Amino acid sequence: IIQQFQEKLQDLQLSEEQNSNMNLLRFLRARDFKLNLAEDMLRKNLAWRKENDMDNIRNYQVPSHFQQDLPYDVVGFDSGNSPVFILP
User: Fold this and answer.
1) Structural domain count of the chain
2) Which of 19, 35, 66, 74 is close enough to 14 for a disulfide, judged by CB 3.0 to 4.6 Å?
């Protein structure tokens, strides 16, 4: 079924990570292995990622006024790799 899914997505030019069996399996499981629904979900996900420039999120610079209005500091990352903030 993963191979069938990959065939339906050939026009997308997915990266190696995006086209991995594990990644595609997430979408298939989320839609009970219904190829058309999984394809629609994946295409919408890719469109959202592009629209919100998610592939460059680590390069995001917080506006300077934000630091002045709400001082904070990133002190590291938790076990889930989420940032840990200190707020006064």
Assistant:
1) 1
2) 19
For residue 6, give Cα distances in angstroms to 9, 31, 46, 69.
5, 15, 15, 47
Question: Is residue 10 scored above 90 in pLDDT?
Answer: yes
User: Which domain does 34 fall in, by range?
Assistant: 1-57
